[in-house]
Write a structure and sequence with these properties.
The chain is of the alpha/beta class. Strand 3 and strand 4 (about 140) form a beta hairpin. The protein has nine helices and four strands; from the N terminus they run αααααβααβββαα. It folds into two domains: about 1-35, no CATH class; about 55-160, Hect, E3 ligase catalytic fold. It has helices at about 1-15, 15-25, 30-35, 40-50, 55-60, 70-85, 85-95, 145-160, 165-200, and strands at about 60-65, 115-120, 130-135, 140. Helix 7 (about 85-95) packs across helix 8. Keywords: Cytoplasm, Phosphoprotein, Repeat, Transferase, Ubl conjugation pathway. It comes from Popillia japonica.
């Protein structure tokens, strides 16, 4: 019984130091007594945004370059977004903005627009994926020929193009170079041993 009490006490307090650090940090921005005015969900929403992604909010901050907002391609885009699940919309936000939630209100965007730019440099357009610039909340799209193609390319991009930088690729490349180098060194050592044995004979 004593063990159970000790184990329970440990689990209840094992993160006290980390929680205190978070609390101290937040207190430098928001007075701690004010935090008691909000529920955990309300506080999470204010800090992180809502897990639900309303397209009306995203549309309200959208601007367009190289195409008119009433063009069929733009209409297809928003129709595809409407058909996306909330999880897919979250993946889309990660693809174009590096985050998975929207701010709560237009004011919380702080003047940052969601930019959709359509370029004619992709030829033929249906053979290319959309591009994103997360620092600028920018989506570059080819001038796709139809909605099914747009949907296919966009879905592929949000599911398989998740990296927002090249750090991982650099680490993989470096690891590969080190492996090749180690292999070459080992082979070189074996060759030297073989030569030494031959000379000894």
């Amino acid at each position: 019984m004593e063990y159970v009490k000790l184990a329970l006490n440990f689990r209840l307090h094992e993160f006290d130091e980390q929680v205190k650090a978070v609390r101290d940090g937040m207190s430098k921005v928001v007075p701690v007594p004010l935090l008691s005015l909000f529920s955990a969900y309300e506080l999470e929403t204010m800090v992180c945004g809502s897990p639900d992604i309303p397209l009306t909010l995203l549309k309200s901050v959208a601007t367009y370059k190289g195409i008119d907002s009433t063009a069929p391609l733009i209409q297809w885009f928003w129709e595809v977004m409407e058909e996306f699940t909330n999880q897919e919309r979250s993946l889309f936000l990660r693809f174009v903005w590096g985050r998975t939630r929207l701010p709560r209100t237009i004011a919380d965007f702080r003047g940052r627009d969601f930019v959709i730019q359509v370029l004619d440099k992709y030829n033929p357009p249906d053979h290319f994926l959309p591009e994103s610039y997360t620092c600028f909340f920018l989506l570059k799209m080819p001038r796709y020929s139809c909605k099914p193609v747009l949907q296919e390319k966009l879905k592929y991009a949000i599911h398989f193009c998740k990296s927002i930088d090249t750090d991982e690729y650099a680490r993989v490349a470096m690891a590969g170079d080190l492996a090749v180098s180690s292999s070459s060194d080992a082979e070189s050592d074996q060759d030297m041993d073989s030569i030494a044995d031959h000379e000894a004979v």
